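TICKET: design request
STATUS: open
ATTACHED STRUCTURE:
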């Protein structure tokens, strides 16, 4: 039985048997409009890399496994994951190349909750590095080390479009345009290009960036003006591209290491993490990007970022097994 809305207020619910531990290397987080958190963890230091995903009702309780609603082991280490709806379905990409959809399910006999694997596809030939979900939740894009991009139908996890050799190097990030028709998305790659795609077509629509000597590693659409796309590079640069002119409108270098993830938290504030222990937020005015927030509480590489819509704050996770809350606009 799938759970019904409002279960979090029902005193009869209880968590189920969960994996033995939350592994040290926290890879990603995602938070719904209601504040539920998805957390992905991996063990990258053993001979056999393992992974797991965890579901928390309260973001501030992560990564304490005793306070999670449920969790499940994955066959290999995990790389990215997203909610597919408000609380019930999630999709996870693994280092094996697998893409799996899980459904949060309640058992009738004891009211325990489980993440049940609904469908798994192994169509990628190498590690899945990035997953993006369209705004209507009907399409998922995945890409990774096999240089391919695949578009999936979320209802049955069947491939709608398969872009073989979409880039000449690893596909590092994918992002659907938030206010578009749910078909337009961008991709970045270590080959130095950012491409704009229409999933109804078989070739990229536009080359937005081409810097062969500077691999590109992260993307984020402006949440209000989706003509603006932020691009992060392996040397720590962040550039803002205006789709109307296909040109850089602003640039900055807040890190001296590869940018790993970018996230717009409002119309002019962009959170960023790199291959470092820092979490930074830059704001853009008419002509430049300024660092307005810098946090160094993590002790290892920061990997995941998510905005909490209810609490109006930023959460980060990293390889130090910490989930940290950031009150970026507290002052």
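STATUS: resolved
RESOLUTION: sequence designed for all positions
ATTACHED SEQUENCE:
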């Amino acid at each position: 039985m799938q759970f019904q809305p409002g279960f979090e207020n029902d005193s009869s619910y209880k968590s189920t048997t969960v994996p033995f531990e939350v592994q040290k290397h926290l890879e990603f987080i995602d938070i719904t409009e209601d504040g539920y958190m998805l957390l992905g963890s991996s063990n990258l230091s053993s001979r056999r890399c393992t992974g797991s995903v965890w579901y928390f009702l309260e973001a501030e309780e992560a990564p304490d496994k005793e306070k999670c609603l449920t969790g499940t082991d994955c066959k290999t280490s995990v790389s990215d994951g997203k909610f597919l709806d408000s609380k019930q379905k999630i999709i996870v990409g693994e280092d094996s190349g697998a893409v799996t959809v899980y459904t949060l399910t309640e058992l009738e006999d004891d009211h325990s909750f489980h993440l049940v694997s609904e469908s798994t596809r192994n169509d990628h030939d190498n590690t899945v590095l990035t997953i993006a979900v369209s705004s209507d939740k009907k399409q998922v894009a995945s890409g990774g080390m096999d240089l391919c991009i695949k578009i999936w139908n979320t209802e049955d996890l069947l491939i709608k479009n398969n872009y073989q050799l979409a880039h000449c190097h690893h596909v590092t990030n994918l992002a659907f345009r938030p206010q578009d028709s749910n078909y337009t998305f961008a991709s970045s790659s270590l080959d130095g290009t950012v491409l704009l795609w229409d999933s109804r077509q078989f070739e990229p629509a536009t080359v937005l960036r081409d810097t062969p000597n500077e691999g590109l590693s992260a993307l984020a659409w402006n949440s209000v003006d989706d003509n603006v796309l932020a691009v992060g590079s392996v040397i720590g640069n962040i550039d803002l591209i205006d789709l109307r002119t296909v040109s850089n409108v602003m640039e900055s270098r807040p890190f001296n290491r590869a940018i790993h993830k970018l996230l717009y938290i409002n119309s002019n504030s962009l959170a960023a993490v790199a291959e470092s222990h820092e979490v930074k937020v830059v704001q853009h005015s008419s002509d430049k990007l300024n660092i307005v927030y810098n946090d160094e509480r993590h002790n290892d590489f920061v990997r995941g970022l998510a905005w909490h819509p209810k609490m109006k704050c930023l959460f980060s996770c990293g390889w130090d097994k910490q989930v940290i809350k950031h009150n970026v606009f507290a002052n």
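CLOSING REMARK: Residues 56 and 189 are 32 Å apart (CA to CA). The mean pLDDT is 91.
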